[in-house]
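Re: folding output
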Amino acid sequence: MLLMIMRMMMMLMMMMMMMMMMMMMMMMMMMMMMMMMMMMMMVVMMMMMMMMMMMMMMMMMMMMMMMMMMMMMMMMMTTTTTTTKTTTTTTTTTTTTTTMMMMMMMMMMMMMMMMMMMMMMMMMMMMMMMMMMMMMMMIMMMMVMVMMMMMVRRRRRRRRRRRILYRYPVSTSY
């Protein structure tokens, strides 16, 4: 009887140990997953930041271009007016109007360009986001698969061990 009790105790201990091991493994896996997720998030954030910077740069460039154009136009207007003041007044008006028209056209063009750039950037951002999401999903799936495999393996091992433990006492008890 004592032997039997001892054996039972041993079995319990073994079970407890196994459970502890399982728990530890699970915890480790969870930690790993968390780390991976964090890393991925960091990458995404970095990408986003980069994109934002690019957008800002583009905007700045466009603004500068616009300013330059405006300055140029203004200069042109002044020159035309000053040069043609000696002659008739009709020419001045015509030149100013044309320059104005030109300026408007340039402005429109610039605006269009800016819009296009913005659209492109937005598209890029969306694409990046989609890609990241896909990657995340893939990694998650892989993790789950690994977990399943590990679980199956553990179960098999457990069963085998249990069987062996069960068999031996019966054969050597009496």
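--- second protein (sequence, then structure) ---
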Amino acid sequence: MAYKIAVDSGGTFTDGVLVKESGEVITTKAHTTPQDPAFGTMDCIRKLASELGLTVEDLLSQTDTIIHGTTMATNLVATHSGAKMGTIATQGYRLRMTFQQVAKSDWQDKSEDMFDMRLEAPKALTSNHLMTEVEERVNVRGEVLVPLNEESVREAVRYLKGKEV
């Protein structure tokens, strides 16, 4: 039998789903372990194996697809927790993420006045001094206009390492 397994490691729980060839679905849940995300993932897989009366090794040998997703990194960025983070952007766009740009059509259902200068701006994902640039350019069709300058990447990484990122 070929199984398909999906595991999603969230901020608090790790969810596991197994689909049998018959279409039957088995679900389970384990605690997310931020200090070692693999533990929560493997705990889900162990529980799925147990539901089938199999060892983890037997389950995995009969599995043809494993999908793993996580919101852990997204949560760290959104909550400004975790390790110090830097940003590497296309040359000329270093500060772009700090601009408060929004389309009027995206603001239709908001109660705030988008032109009210007293509105508190969201905190930037990265401090300005931890933003750097690399030389490259790609157009909207994904075509390379200016090839990536690898030396500019090395310089950007050296800069961020110097800032202890």
